[in-house]
Amino acid sequence: MDFKPNYLNNPDNIEKDILTSKTMFCKDQFGNLYELKAVDQNLNTFQAEWNDLNLASHDHPHQTTSASVQDDGGEDDLSSHTSLDSGNWVHSLQKSCSNFFHKYKRETIWLVGILCIILYFIYFTFAIIYDFQLAIALIACTGVVLFCIGYSFVDSLFGDKLDKMFCSPIDRAISNNWHIIKWFLYPAIAIFGVLYLGLVVIREMKQVQPISGIFIFMLIVYLTSKHPNQIIWRPVLWGFSLQFIFAVFVLRWQFGYIAVKFLADQINIFIEYGYDGAAVVFGDPALLLHPFAMMVRHSFASDRLPLKSNPGMSMLLYLGAVMAILYYLGITQKAAVKLGWVLQKTMNTTAIETLNTAANIFLDGMDTMLMLRHYIDKLTLSEFNCFLVGNHATVAGFVFALFVLFGAPPQHLLSAAVMSAPATIAICKLNYPETEESQTKNLEDIELPKGEDVNIFEAAANGCNMAAKVVCSVLACYIAMMALLAFLNATLEWLGGRVGYPQLSFELICSYVMWPIAYVIGVDAPECKEAAKLIGIKIFATEVLAYQELGKSVARGSLSPRNQALTTYAMCGFSSISTLAIAIGVWNAICPQRVKLMASFMLRVLVEANISCFMTACVAEILTAAGHAVTLTPVKYMNMVEIWVNDRLVFTCNVLKLDFDGDGMLDCLCLNALDCVNSAF
């Protein structure tokens, strides 16, 4: 007779046999758990498992007792029981702490936060008592943080109520009556602007020169417009108005100028910490024979670094990690949303246009594309054009650090980035007006995700890796462009030599071709050729080479400080032919379905982005007074110097804080005097 398993004789016993088999196996393996139950009554997990096994194997005849197991290895079991007992105690403690934290999570966070605030304000008080002058930066940072915390607190508790009671009714009233309000608002803005320029700003005929430049550039944009009969003038007028307002805040208001100058100085000090990382890996960069990669000379000195130097390409790696951390924490996204809200309410632009333009003040173009990549396919042609121009008309992130590295004044780069943002939208809406229905009208419909990194450390590592690619790209591009430029100049020199003009070069051609642009933005006629050469190199070659040449011009004294600032504004954009060619590769990786469309927009983007920079330079020149008489007067019995401009006291400087290296004192005094001219007039 063939043996048949029990489950074949009676299918109802399948579950019972399987359970019995599993029970025997588990009891053979975990028999010692019975003793653990007696040792530690609080081990609920093992206790429940053992009870279940006992219930399942109650009638099983083959049962291994715990005594027999203990006889086989008593000493080993005793040590294992002791180890498991301590482990169980730690596990119970962890579980209790976890349960307590989850139960009182809100209260715990509040308690820790209040404790940290108390400790910080104790430190803050001692810092002010110790030295108020040294604590000014700490006071400013504390004020900004408290404002942000207070705003978030009020917004979370009363944001909806305030919006329903005040913001929404006012917004609806303005929207419903805008067709009437605009006939009073626009003339009022125009009259105020004319009176302000005529009575307060313009002190000499030279300041009229860039006004003609503004009208010339606007005429060029209008004549090349895609749909000149469908231009919506609200974003155009508001864009130029906001640019003017930002410029007044930065260049004419003393507090605004000091704030931007202070922020730029702190950014410069912050990025100089890349020196420490480079020094650990490569040794002291000042002693190396690779100045471009490790140590770059520029026009300002620092207490941390050798005189007039910067930590080279290592600075980009450091800043890449920092920007990635800020993006991971969502700080850049929040800043872009807040500024984007202002731009959208005034200019009535769509969400993606606004967010992209605002984000490009804080992020470079590639980071902005990654942040908004899910919405690129939904853009209309006008929005797509504005998106492209916004990515190339300002500088931020790596590009900001790169230009500072080559000697560009950081305060001018920072103010130019802010001023160019609204001008970019205005120029785009004038040159390519909207004719389609947008799918991204409201900011509320756009989600800006945080970084996909697990934690801050992964974000920093990924940001550094991305920056390493940028460094390699910059070095490779610089090598290639220098080689091509050398070949081009040799060819032009050979061709010129055939007709008796061997000094013919690419730079010389640019100095003549771009001379009118340099002149209409306000550069002095004797220095127009030098500024035009730099602008031409920036457009037709690369920004890297142009800003390095700017550093050389500053070192040679070929440009006055005022013309240095104007040239910086005019070149403040990542909008060269080579950059746009590289951007095609970036688009092919991020949004390949729109690569051909991007390539078809290249010429229009090149013109619009550079005109946006030129307009910023014109506005800066109008609002920056030149040619004022600066007098330095020592204060008796004090280490102070009074700076008088046109018989008006505008600044008092502590001599002990100036640079006494060689004739550095006079240079530093003159530099501070120039800053006072910009802020006081």
UniProtKB/TrEMBL annotation:
Its main location: membrane. It is found in: Cell membrane. One of its GO terms (cellular component) is plasma membrane. Keywords: Cell membrane, Membrane, Transmembrane, Transmembrane helix. Residues 61-81 are annotated as: Disordered. GO terms for biological process: nucleoside transmembrane transport. The keyword Isomerase does not apply. One of its GO terms (molecular function) is nucleoside:sodium symporter activity. It comes from Helobdella robusta (Californian leech). Residues 213-284 form the Concentrative nucleoside transporter N-terminal domain. Pfam families: Nucleos_tra2_C (PF07662), Nucleos_tra2_N (PF01773). The lineage of its organism: Eukaryota, Metazoa, Spiralia, Lophotrochozoa, Annelida. Residues 412-620 form the Concentrative nucleoside transporter C-terminal domain. It is a multi-pass membrane protein. InterPro entries: C_nuclsd_transpt, CNT_C_dom, CNT_N_dom. Belongs to the concentrative nucleoside transporter (CNT) (TC 2.A.41) family. The keyword Cell membrane applies. The chain crosses the membrane at residues 109-130, 136-159, 180-202, 208-224, 236-255, 315-331, 384-406, 470-492, 504-523, 566-589, 609-630. This is Sodium/nucleoside cotransporter. The gene is 20206982. PANTHER family: SODIUM/NUCLEOSIDE COTRANSPORTER, SOLUTE CARRIER FAMILY 28 MEMBER 3.
